[in-house]
Model the fold of this input.
Amino acid sequence: MALKTPQEYLDDLRKMNINLYMFGEKIENYVDHPIIRPSINAMAMTYKLAQDPEHEDLMTATSSLTGEKINRFCHLHQSPEDLIKKVKMLRLLGQKTGCCFQRCVGMDAFNAVYNTTYEIDQANGTNYHQRFVDFMKYVQENDLAVDGCMTDARGDRSKRPGEQPDPDAYLRVVERREDGVVVRGCKLHQTGMINSHEMLVMPNNTLKDDEKDWAICFAIPVDTPGMIYVYGRQSCDTRKLEGGDVDTGNKYFGGQEVMTIFNNVFVPNERIFMNGEVEFSGTLVERFAGYHRQSYGGCKVGVGDTLIGAAKAITDYQGVSKASHVKDKLIEMCHLNETLYSCGIACSAEGRKTAAGNFLIDLLLANICKLNVTRFPYEIARLAQDLAGGFFVTMPSEKDFANPEIGSLVKKYSTSRSDVPVEHRQRMLRLIENLTMGCAAVGYLTESMHGAGSPQAQRIMITRLVDLEHRKELAEKLCGVKENTDVDWK
Ligand code: SF4
Ligand code: FE
Done:
């Protein structure tokens, strides 16, 4: 099976035995749960669009491992063009869902683990890469959704993994067996975890020689025995339980983050891709983060497109779209959004081939991309709120609009332009609320800040990757502090 349909994907989820808790209770049927289903719908769009001939070029690729047509989310990038198409695919998905659609983390982990395992084997004579290739073929042939899993609980942030009072603060090997290892720990913020078939787990950070137990990379099915999941709350999440479809803002889609607990979980040898090679932990983390920082130059831009569209629509509905400052603000939003896209495209176009054969983005430009993402969506959201006016936070509930006694009065005083149905205004304001302070703000704002590493992580990478001494020398040559041999004519 090369490409799954959304229905087949949903059928897969129904067969999984997920040990999930939410609001203090065990959830048996999570696929049909009103809080969870929008996130499943968002992931399902990655399957739906791959079936659509109009989007075939972006959504599918030819596997470098099998020669088969596969979903691009399962692809190992073979060129800068592939990297660019990835960014465009994520923008398209952001536009279609208006939220985080979750499948990119796995794609970014595939590409980082693929080239890192190759380099581990070259250095140490291990066989991790072939194991990983076998896993990738399985993923591609079955069109699986895989969660890339990195961020540990991390306990006391001033202490390294090996120094924590509770050593489980970072996921680690607690038992070594002939046939595999047992791991214990917790990965936080896991995007789309229970909407995935498998997870690909990586270490959280650069490790030292005495931290080998934490240098573990592996893949397991999401419903492996010993796994416990606790659903993360989102602002306004219980609106999805109210039964309406206006106050949720986004009628169909949403994101998902899950606390992921490994309570003594067995991992067989054939699924282990790093086991104690601390010297490669930094490379793996840096590359995964780099790929995911590139991703944000696509997905956040697509969601930004929906917010710009919502701002444009509400100014039309409320009769202010001709004012010059309104036009200026919309242009400013576009300028910021397209700047993010430019960074995503630039780090892709400057990508280079790794020793393993797949392509890596330009790490400096990917970090610049992500650092901009920590700021611009907030400014775009601020402008959207400015243009919307205050009613998106004071508007009565959709049940008040439907109430037989007061509904007509609520509608009368919520009407803006008489030729625009009041429900259109209501829905658009709720969408702006959803994107800038509701469920989707998790993905559009807070994740823009902290996802793929908080801003300081990008600053550290930029410090490492930018050659300031070279720039200093450029200046010194121009002003005559240093000899300038470039000027050799009279
Ligand atoms: Fe994909 Fe963006 Fe969600 Fe990350 S935040 S999983 S890149 S949609
Ligand atoms: Fe993310």
The CA atoms of residues 2 and 221 lie 19 Å apart. The chain has a mean pLDDT of 97. The radius of gyration is 24 Å. Residues 191, 447, 451-452 surround fe (iii) ion (ligand 2) (CB under 6 Å).
